[in-house]
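residues and backbone:
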Amino acid sequence: MSLYTMETASTPCKVHQCSKCPGDTEYYCVSCPCDLCPQCKENHVKDVQTIDHDVVSHRDKINYIPTQEICVRHPSHVYTKYCEPCQVPVCDSWFGHTSHRFPIPVWHKIESIQGAFQTKRQQHRGIIHTIRSEALFYRPVLLPRIKTDFKTCQTEFSRYQSEMLTKAQTLKHLIDYIQEDFMCNVFCNFDFKHRFLKQKKEMIMHIVSLQRYVHIYEQRKVIRPLQFLSSIKTALPQIHPTLHTSQLSMTESLNKEDVMESLSAIQITERGNRHLGNQCLLKLTSVPELHQVTCVASCCHISCVTSDRVWVSDHRNILMLMDTSGISLHRVKDPCNHLFDREGFHTVNSESELIYIDGNGNINKLSKDMKTTTTFIETTDSTWEPLCVYWSPSTGDLLVGMSRDGSYIHTRTGKVTRYNQSGQLTQTIQHDNTRRRMRMYSKPNYITENNNGDVVVSDSYSAVVVTERGGRHRFSYTGPPSGSGLVPRGICTDALSHILVCDGETKTVQMLDKDGQFLSHLLTKSQEMGEPRSLSYDVNTHRLWVGSRYNNKVCVYSYIIRQHALTDEHRPRPDREAMYSSTSAVKWR
């Protein structure tokens, strides 16, 4: 759409309009595609539905050439090149710049300004995306709170300052009293100088006596030895030099508890960054929205890497990396193809490294570039078989669900182990200590962690078992109030601390709160999704990946959106009455 306006010189000027409102276009969404004004662009990058869209300025779309800058070294030239090693712009006479004199080093890479700009922009794309989608979204929430705190800070500080001065004065009085009492009891009531002179005189007399007997002993020719010893025993007085002091005694008016209370009342609060809870930023939609359907054969587990790349595994434990179009980008060779009872056997850490269980029960780590595989944890006990893994974003620990065969199904037992980032075992969760050390797990096939640190396990033989981070049993979910029972499969948690679990009995995805209360059937068996088997929640886009085992599909849903009050969708513009609301998300292309 275009609009013709007349300037002072009556020259027609063609201006592109925003695709969502009558505003002027300044940005362009490559993913939709559509033109956007500044306000609609801000809403577009903050909306969960379009948070991962690639939005660029309109000048980037048309390969806009910026205003040329004059070279400071060669005023007759402009900057046209960029030296990557030196990180400086140069003109056509770049050999005359610092470090650019003949012979020119081979490793100095000279490229065009436009090319260097695109390279730098691509390198910082993640930071730009975070600023646009997160920082700009939090700003309207944090700014009013900061302004409120600023207004009340002086009042609060004055109150605390008054309390501190009062407590400091009380402590000063106590210290002065102790000092006065000590000086009175020790240095005033006792004449140490007199006692010292008296003891000094006694010591001199004892020394003289000893010297006399030494002289007698040396002249022992005139006295027999036995007679000498006898005379010492009877005549030599016992010498016990002592220093007479008095213990310091406090009067009853000085109370030790008062001193301790005054000192313990002093508290230091750690300063930190302001944080916003997801409860005030996000909310559930009335109905989940289907975004995409991708063909994947018998998907039993999903691990998100980015918003457009995931690791998936099938019922034969074939593990591959795919994009949103279903194209296989990489395949892990024979992770554990001969073991058909491992389902949640892979996860992804913060470095985008794949962590998975191989056929020997070892836990391996595949580098981000998918070129190096290392053994992270080597199995040492063949009686315990690792079945599932989960990397904790909050602690960096690795949670591993294990199982040990018994003679019968009801005698099979399981446990959860925790390993730190060095691969050292730090915790084992196995028994319910609140119920006479009863077993909690039989066969933990999937494992995850909630925002509060709870360890959430989908045990295919029993229930959804939830324990605190320390290992204490919180609850076990065995099905909705309808009494339909539960056959738990894939499991995950979302940004609102909901627990989502696939149920093989009702062919649904059930939503629980963090305390195990059934909330709803979030998804039910459908033609698009089929029977849900595996789940993975993308914390960046707040989208839910759902894999089906029998209809060879992976579906992507959105059921969480940001609060409308925070997206500024209806904030008035100076030149218009109000902004139009953003349209719904466009399907991935």
Remarks:
- Residues 125-188 form the longest helix (64 residues).
- The mean pLDDT is 78.
- The longest strand covers residues 282-295.
- Helices lie at 38-46, 58-61, 113-123, 125-188, 192-218, 225-235, 256-264.
